[in-house]
Every structure is written in structure tokens, then in C-alpha cells.
Write a structure and sequence with these properties.
The chain is α/β, with parallel strands linked by helices. The chain contains 29 helices and 19 strands. It folds into five domains: 188 residues, 3-Layer(aba) Sandwich (Rossmann fold), CATH 3.40.50.300; 143 residues, 3-Layer(aba) Sandwich (Rossmann fold), CATH 3.40.50.300; 127 residues, hef helicase domain (phosphoenolpyruvate carboxylase, domain 3, Up-down Bundle), CATH 1.20.1320.20; 133 residues, Rossmann fold (3-Layer(aba) Sandwich), CATH 3.40.50.10130; 60 residues, DNA polymerase, domain 1, CATH 1.10.150.20. The strands form three sheets. A seven-stranded parallel beta sheet has the order 3-4-2-5-6-1-7, with helices on both faces. The longest helix has 25 residues.
């Protein structure tokens, strides 16, 4: 067996596979999308390209992006193990890394791993310049559609880099040709390298994988409950058909209903208060149908216990003040209660047939091969818990759950450290059955297994390919899909199969696409306006900040006590969506915020974002109350109210005002607005709040402890730490700001 030979790659650490070498040769010549099955070495290709760029351009850096924190850390570990670089030159950056430490890493490290959200945040905050990066790697590149940060980062990179090169990696870019083209366009892809298990140069490295589907009959009680729910669903769909929102009540799923909702809301927003009543009737029917669709899906794929929990929540919420009409319609229907009581009475006695089938499949696998490794994918955490419980009773079977980090109702998620510990124990054999939600599908270095069991089918070809790729890497593998007959399980399975076929057809002929087809021309970029905007740190994740960055505005993120944006030493802006504006009226915050904005800035502005007719659609607030609030903001406090339709228009308005203030009137951007008419105590707090990391509460504590502003400013690091809430890092940063020489 031959190995990759390169001065920056550890000797004998990477097998030299012919198809990887061919893809590498192509990828170093131009921006490339690599489509390669899970487990076939996409990461190894990225390592070879990174080594090539760092060796050829020794003063450059490489950035590897992945969509999740565990995947970022995993990439850092794999690259660190296989590449010959000092450890201090590799850094993994996530949202858990402080901004100061990220800024230091961007400056010092050569090989950096980060989530795209962190990269986007630091780009717009001015902590990162991509000029010196010779390679950007976009892992799980199929995500580069819509507003996902990958597209924004790629555009900024192609604009700034002296020697740009992009490598995009995915097991599946999607079924639709339009989606594939969007990925290519957003990532400036000039060529596509595709390999499948069937290709001659890949085939020697792929073990055969047998796919089976086990079709199961639902018990009679399940079918009876299903009929109760489907009767109600058909009635709600009939309402939607009556008013022309759908053409048939057959085959309508959640995605169709979401599209109905979007279309109705667009019409309602366009017509405003004059919208006819049937539109609101349609929205109620759509909301009820969505809930019923979900209930049927739970029953079909998970069982009576899952359905009982869902209906219990639905009925409980329907009794709460302010419950929507759709909830009340379902709660007042005796069929809902019959379904609930049946599920409640039988949940302990009658499990979904998938449970028994999963037990038999796993038992059979370990009888045939006691040292097997198995992965079971289940959509719902309740199913994961139940499978762990029943399989742990089998001899020789050691199951463990593997879930994401997000909390769900009463259950906390699984930390990154816990995930890593479980995977390590799975590799070592302490556990031999990994029961995972979707977190196990994408990218994580989960060992190859002999059996992958789909507890339910998935309609996504991307998820189907990722799940299936967990077996058949080193030794022959099996994939078993559990399907409940005549249910969404079957529809989802065949949907995924058809989409995968369409994906393969769409990818045919893409291998040598000319650069201009997928790569935007840099001449399209306009020269950025040399203006600066200070944005509150909570705004950095918004589309407004992204649009400002696209317009070439330099963004500085800070914690602002007043307003959301500062455009000059006299202009401060509060941004509110229509919904925020109305809610702040209800909460009685609006006039207080307007007063503070007017006291702080000479030219205060309130941007009201959203379609104008949305403002008067909330029937609980009288239009005269809304008009009175607008009048008070403008007349009583002198705050200019500027309407915008969306985030893009808001950004354009902010950029225009900033340009007028800074470029045409030569005004500076003040870190804080000029407060007017402050008392002595307010002035003292105002000064101390200007220290780094000092909030209003900390300013009060500092002044109470030291007595005067002068003593606060003269305090040593040790003395500052005597104040509750000020630790070593904050004290050190305060002293650094106070004692450093000013360099104009």
C-alpha cells in the first residue's frame, strides 16, 4: 500500500488512493466542488490541498469551515494528527471562544477551523480579514443555499484574498438542478469532481452494502385512531380546497401546507385591513391541518405513546388564555378527545411494531456476529430513549443514546464533551449500538458499522445518503429500513430514492463546467463606501448587518446601552420590526426608549421595518393607539420615524445616512452618543460605563466601592477584582485601556 508523500503530511499516515489524487490535481487548479460518498476521504483531499497551499504560499493561511461545533473540533483533531505543523498554528474557533481570543487566533494561527457563523460575525465586526488566506474549505457544502453564511463568507473571500482558492465538500448537493447551481454560484465554483460507489477508481475501496426494507402492519387500534385524525384532517383540507388554496385533498403534506400558509400571508399583508374574511378562515384551517398532519405522522411512525404526549400538550395549550382558533377547534372536537383517550389507555399495552422488529433485527445481528457495531437512526428523542431501554435488556447488546446539544422541553441536550466521550467509547467497544437522532448523520467521525437501521424513513436524499454511508466502508454492510405499511414511512422512503436518482442525473455532465458558469465575476463587485457603522452586538446576527457588509460598510460591534446603530457622533438609530414596535407599545417600553434615544443623540432615528399595512393588522390594538404612539415618538421626543420594507432596505438607509454624515459632512462615529442634560450621578455612571465590559450594574458597583470616578480610574487590577462581577480578564482589559498610549 502506497502513502501520500508530502513534507507537511505525516509519513505513512494517509493511503494514496488514485481517485483522491485525481481530485486533488483538479482542486489545486481552481475552485472545486467535490461530491464523494460518506467515508470515501473528503477530509483527506482537503488535507492534501491545504498542505499544497501552505507549502507553496508559506506566508498564507487556511480556513476550514463546518456547520457544527463538534465537526469543527473533529476537523482540527484530524488535521492536527495528519499534518506536520506546530500545535500552536492550529486553532478551532466556535461561538464558545471569546472575541478577543478569536481575534488573536486569526492573527497568529496558520490553519484555522471555525463555524461559518463565527466567521461571518468576525468579518462584519472587523476582527477578521481574509486577504492572507490561500484556501477556504467549505464542509457540508450542500448548505450553501439561501441565507446560510457560506455564501456571504465566499463572496467576502473572493473580494479580499490575494491568492483565492475554494474547496467545497459534500456527499450530496441535493436532488434539484437549481439547488446544485445555487451551491456552485454561491461558492464561486468553477468545476465539479463527482465520484460514486460505482466508479471504477472508487469501487475497490467500497464494500458491498445490502439494503433491505421491512414492511410492518399497524395494529387495528392504530388504524382506528388514525381514522379519527384523518377525518378531521380531510375536513380542514376541504376548507382549503373550497377557497382555492389547494386543488385536491389527496396527498397534501406538511410542505404543501407551509406553502399554503406563505401564500395566504402574502395576500393578507398586501391587502391589510381590507383582506377578506376567507383568508383568515384559510389560515385557521391551515394551522389545524398542520397539527393534524403531525399527529398522524407521530402515530404512524412512532406509536401511541408519542401521539398521547402530543395531544396532551395540544389540549393543554388550547385551555390557556390567548389560544388560537385552530387549537380551540381541535380541542372542541370529540374525535380529538377519543383519539387522546384511546392512546392514553393503550400506550402501555400496545407499542409500535417497529420496537419488536428493531429488537429482532439487533438480536439477529449479534447472534450472527457478536463483535458487531450497529447504528440506529431515529427522528424523535422519545424513540431513542425507548430503544435504549428495550435493547439494553438483550444479552451482549450495550446501547447508548446520541443526541444533539439543544434542550427539548424537560430534557437537556448532550454537550460536545459528552458526544465526544460516547463516540470514543463506541469506537473502543464499550458500547456496540449507537442510537442517534439526526446529529449522527452529518460529518461526525463515527466508525464504520456492520448494520445501519432506519427506525423511520426520511424524505431527504441528503440525509438518506449520509445515514447509509455509515456502513460498507471497511467491511460489507447492511442497511435496514423499517416501514409501516400504507403510511408516510413508505412515501418518505421512495421520495428519498427518487430524489437521489434525480441528483445523480442532475450531476451528470457537471464534471468540467467552465468557470464562468458557476463563478461570479469579481468585476461585478462595486467599490465599498468608506464609512463605518457601530452596531449593537445583538444586531450582528441580523440580515441588516450582513447587507451593510455587502455594501462595503465597515461594521464595529459593541454593546450599546442606547440604540442599535450609531452612524456618527450625533446620529443614533433604534431599529424595530412592526411586531417589535407593537409589542413595545403593549409592554409600555416604547416611549421610554424614545425618550432615552432623544436624550442621548442629537439626531435620533427610529427605523420601522416591515410592510406598512402590517402595522394595523393586529386587531387587539386600536389603530388610533398606534397613530398616537407614532405621533408621540415624532412630536413629543423629536425622533424621526423612517419606514423600511425589509432588512435590505434598512441597510441601504443606514449606509446612506452614514455616508452623508461621515463622507460629506466629515463627522466622526462616536462610540456613544452625546448625552444631554444628565445629572452628576448620571454623568459619573456614563463615564464608568465606557470602560470595557462594564455594564450599568457594574458601573454602579464600581462607584459605590471606590466612591469617585477618579478612584475607579486609578484602581489597580487587584483592587478592581474586589468588586463583584470583575474577574482577572476584565480587570486586565480595563487597565490596558486606561494605561495604553493613544495612537491616532
Amino acid at each position: 500500500m502506497s502513502h501520500v508523500d508530502h513534507p507537511l503530511i505525516e509519513p505513512n499516515s494517509m493511503e494514496a488512493r488514485a481517485y483522491q489524487q485525481v481530485i486533488f490535481s483538479s482542486a489545486v487548479r481552481g475552485n472545486t466542488l467535490v461530491v464523494l460518498p460518506t467515508g470515501m476521504g473528503k477530509t483527506q483531499i482537503a488535507i492534501m490541498v491545504a498542505a499544497h497551499r501552505l507549502a507553496g504560499l508559506p506566508d498564507s493561511k487556511v480556513l476550514v469551515m463546518a456547520p457544527t461545533r463538534p465537526l469543527v473540533v473533529q476537523h482540527c483533531q484530524v488535521f492536527g494528527r495528519l499534518m506536520r505543523l506546530p500545535r500552536e498554528e492550529l486553532r478551532a474557533l466556535t461561538g464558545h471562544t471569546s472575541p478577543a481570543r478569536r481575534q488573536e487566533a486569526w492573527r497568529r494561527a496558520r490553519l484555522i477551523f471555525a463555524t461559518p457563523q463565527v466567521v461571518e460575525y468576525d468579518l462584519v465586526a472587523g476582527r477578521l480579514s481574509l486577504g492572507d488566506f490561500s484556501l477556504l474549505v467549505f464542509d457540508e457544502a450542500h448548505r450553501a443555499v439561501g441565507d446560510y453564511p457560506y455564501g456571504f463568507v465566499a463572496e467576502r473571500y473572493m473580494r479580499a484574498a490575494k491568492n483565492p482558492l475554494i474547496l467545497a465538500l459534500t456527499a450530496s448537493p441535493g436532488a434539484e438542478a437549481g439547488r446544485i447551481e445555487e451551491v456552485k454560484r454561491n461558492l464561486f465554483i468553477g468545476q465539479v469532481e463527482i465520484r460514486t460507489e460505482r466508479d471504477a477508481d472508487v469501487h475497490p475501496y467500497v464494500q458491498p452494502t445490502e439494503i433491505e426494507w421491512h414492511r410492518l402492519e399497524l395494529p387495528r387500534a392504530f388504524i382506528d385512531v388514525k381514522k379519527l385524525l384523518e377525518e378531521q384532517l380531510r375536513e380542514q383540507l376541504t376548507v382549503l380546497k373550497k377557497y382555492g388554496f389547494i386543488t385536491s385533498v389527496q396527498g397534501v403534506g406538511k410542505r404543501d401546507l407551509l406553502e399554503v400558509q406563505r401564500k395566504i400571508r402574502e395576500v393578507v399583508h398586501g391587502l391589510g385591513p381590507s383582506a377578506p374574511e376567507n383568508l383568515y378562515v384559510g389560515l385557521i384551517a391551515q394551522a389545524a391541518a398542520m397539527r393534524l398532519c403531525h399527529a398522524v405522522e407521530l402515530l404512524e411512525t412512532q406509536g401511541l405513546a408519542a401521539l398521547e404526549r402530543y395531544l396532551a400538550r395540544l389540549l393543554r395549550r388550547a385551555r390557556m388564555p390567548g389560544a388560537g382558533r385552530a387549537l380551540k377547534i381541535l380541542a372542541n372536537d370529540p374525535r380529538t378527545w377519543r383519539a387522546f383517550r384511546t392512546a392514553q389507555g393503550l400506550r402501555e399495552k400496545m407499542e409500535h411494531p417497529k420496537i419488536a422488529e428493531a429488537i429482532e433485527v439487533v438480536r439477529g445481528q449479534f447472534v450472527r456476529k457478536p463483535n458487531s457495531r450497529v447504528i440506529i437512526f431515529a427522528h424523535y428523542r422519545d424513540s431513542v430513549e425507548r430503544l435504549v431501554d428495550v435493547l439494553s435488556k438483550l444479552s451482549g447488546v450495550r446501547p447508548v443514546k446520541f443526541i444533539g446539544q439543544a434542550a427539548r422541553e424537560s430534557e437537556s441536550g448532550m454537550s460536545q464533551r459528552e458526544q465526544a466521550r460516547i463516540l470514543e467509547k463506541f469506537r473502543a467497544g464499550d458500547y456496540n449500538v449507537l442510537i442517534s437522532t439526526a446529529v449522527g448523520e452529518e460529518g461526525l467521525d463515527i466508525p464504520s458499522v456492520e448494520l445501519v437501521l432506519f427506525y423511520e424513513a426520511v424524505p431527504s436524499e441528503i440525509r438518506f445518503i449520509q445515514r447509509r454511508g455509515r456502513t460498507g466502508r471497511i467491511r460489507p454492510g447492511r442497511v435496514i429500513v423499517l416501514l409501516a405499511k400504507g403510511t408516510r414511512d413508505e412515501a418518505f422512503y421512495w421520495s428519498a430514492v427518487r430524489k437521489e436518482q434525480r441528483m445523480r442525473e442532475a450531476l451528470c455532465g457537471q464534471g468540467a463546467a467552465p468557470a464562468q458558469m458557476g463563478q461570479k465575476m469579481l468585476e461585478e463587485f462595486t467599490k465599498p463606501a468608506m464609512v463605518r457603522v457601530i452596531a449593537d452586538h445583538r444586531e450582528v446576527a441580523s440580515g441588516v448587518v450582513r447587507e451593510l457588509a455587502q455594501l462595503g460598510v465597515v461594521i464595529e460591534a459593541k454593546q450599546l446601552e442606547v440604540g442599535d446603530y450609531i452612524l456618527s457622533d450625533r446620529v443614533g438609530v433604534e431599529r424595530k420590526s412592526v411586531q417589535d414596535f407593537l409589542q413595545s407599545m403593549v409592554d409600555k417600553r416604547l416611549l421610554g426608549q424614545a425618550k432615552l434615544l432623544a436624550e442621548t443623540f442629537e439626531r435620533p432615528i427610529l427605523i420601522l421595518e416591515g410592510e406598512s399595512n402590517e402595522l394595523y393588522m393586529i386587531r387587539a390594538i386600536h389603530p388610533n393607539a398606534i397613530r398616537g404612539a407614532l405621533a408621540a415618538v415624532a412630536v413629543d421626543f423629536g425622533v424621526s420615524v423612517l419606514p423600511t420594507r425589509n432588512e435590505r432596505e434598512t441597510a441601504a438607509v443606514l449606509a446612506m445616512i452614514a455616508k452623508r454624515e461621515q463622507a460629506e459632512r466629515d463627522r466622526e462615529v462616536a462610540v456613544r452618543g452625546e448625552a444631554k442634560g444628565l445629572t452628576l450621578q448620571e454623568q459619573q455612571r456614563f463615564i464608568v460605563e465606557g470602560l470595557p465590559g462594564v455594564s450599568a450594574v457594574l458601573a454602579e458597583r464600581l462607584l459605590e466601592h471606590f466612591g469617585t470616578v477618579e478612584r475607579v480610574m486609578a484602581a489597580s487590577e487587584e483592587e478592581l477584582q474586589q468588586v463583584r462581577g470583575i474577574g482577572p480578564e476584565k480587570a486586565r482589559e480595563i487597565r490596558r485601556v486606561l494605561s495604553s498610549s493613544y495612537v491616532p
